[in-house]
Specification:
The complex is a heterodimer of chains A (about 290) and B (about 325). Chain A has about 290 residues and is an alpha/beta fold. Chain A has 12 helices and 8 strands. Chain B has a 5-stranded mixed β-sheet with strand order 2-1-5-3-4. In chain B, strands 6-7 form a two-stranded antiparallel sheet. The chains are: A alpha/beta (about 290), B alpha+beta (about 325).
Chain lengths: ~290, ~325
Amino acid sequence: MKYAFFPGCVSQGAAPELYPAAKLICERIGIELDEIPGWTCTGAGVMQEKNQFFADTLNARNFAKAEQMGLPILTICSTCQGVMSQANKRMAKDSDYLAEINYHLAEEGLEYKGTAEPKHLLWILIEDIGLDKVTELVTRPLAGIRMAPFYGCYIVRPTEALDIEEHPERQTSLETLIETLGATVVDFEGKTRCCGFPILTINEKNSMAMVGKHTSEAKDLGADAMVTPCPLCHLNLDGYQPKASAQLKRKVDLPILHLPQAIGLAMGIDPKDLGLQKHIMSTQPLTVKLGARR
Amino acid sequence: MDVTIKIRRYDPEAEQPGSYWEEFAVSVADNATVLDALIKIREEMDGTLTLRCSCRSAICGSCAMRINGHAGLACKTPLALVVDENNAITVEPAGVMRVIKDLAVDFEMFWDKIRAVEPYLQPAGVEPEGEYIASNESMLHLSGVTACIMCGACVSDCTVLEVDPTFLGPAALAKAYRFTADPRDGNREGVSRDRLRSLSEETGMWDCTRCNECVQACPKGVAPMDRIMALREQAVEAGFTNNNGARHTNAFTESVGHSGRLDELRLPIKSVGGVTNVGAMLSYAPVGWRALTHGKMPPIRHKNVENVEQVRRLFRKLDPDLAGPQIGRNSPFG
């Protein structure tokens, strides 16, 4: 299957391990990724708080390019997923709004017809590819690994923008996938709460309190690792875990995996090729337990 | 319909007070609400069950509680829509606020925050000779926010209040927007400068994480988070930009407007006011060092996207104040 690939800024910036890991597993599954040429940032909700129209226009520009490619959009970032879905809904609801956006895109020879349906890799695996295909490729089941799902916000809320009513399975997609990989789900209250990343530079104390709360809660329930479909959540939960841990006055040491890394591990791919050594929180206890590394 | 209602109970007068779960098996009509089941439990099974309710029509805002972990009105939630495969649900008191008994919580914190935003019109300057004139559109725009029934569902599920009770929170900030967006509030142009100034301070509008919990929880479509985003737009517009939140949104937009993508190396630096903010720079140092030594530092040279001229053209057209005439030649992001 072929998709118009929307990687998002973070997978090539502060979380550079995500992009190659996603490419690797997609190749194994047989997902062909054709990157949208010159794609721009979705605005991540931040631009929307200042100038929603500009941000939505940039999103429509990405959508129009995917339409030209004639391919459905695949993203590997929950925040991009949420922001794209919200923008898409605003345009679908208000034809005048879309017309105004198209007026500005016309100068570049682009027009968004309204047919895009951006989808996260997580949903595509379950809805388009099918879990049978994933199961088939699991050569090193994550048996004995206790894994906590961390959705974050944008891929679960608001439900209306994400078509959750038509796709109720999306609400448990991460648990479904964890089980498909052979790991045990560690269900915990914080799984759909905020990781704190959006307020990192604004109120670091609160941001760190969120990281500390979620990671320690999962750890206390016996989690060996946490897995997230959102690279921004990963930045905070992994990159800032030492700081959060210091604020909490408690060692947590919980490895945080990007979704494609967890899948890659179960497919028997070398942890190094998945970029696990790039994490701030050591993933070694996990890979050792899994027998993927000495 | 036979359902199992698992209730998180708490009795402050128990010998050893503490919360515990109790299950009740009840038979209710197929179209019964969660509240119908709770009332039946109280009337027929356990008279000590404490809960607040009044109108049963989603108007009074008394019966907000957590159903299956998320806040909502018990009277507005049909059981059939929320029961699991075993026909069971969980019911807990609203979050964040102190539990008094069972499903009743103390609303003092809620009202303190509403009072803190001075919830009444404050026109500045000379009063008009006749009545204040407000356009139909402006009032229709406000009807979305005035639909708030003060049930506290948004406060219950707010991810910031969960870790920091000093945050003004979704209900109070949405209420504040009801005034800042009212043309009769503030100066002759309807700009509520004093409100926007104080709401830009710590514990105010910029502390929201945009997690959408309040949008999801609100039973009346107030969408508090969207109002907080609108407050931010008003505050930046009114020139209250000397804070990390406003700097962050401006720097983010500038980065994307100039290059098409986010410059993750420079954004956090610009958000705290630049490299001259020595304290912030020092606090970044360990995080930056860890990123560098793990091979995950964002690129020093931030690249432009293909066809960046088209992005800059849109930036100039759609956000001229921020783009400025020099965009592309004298970009702050290079």
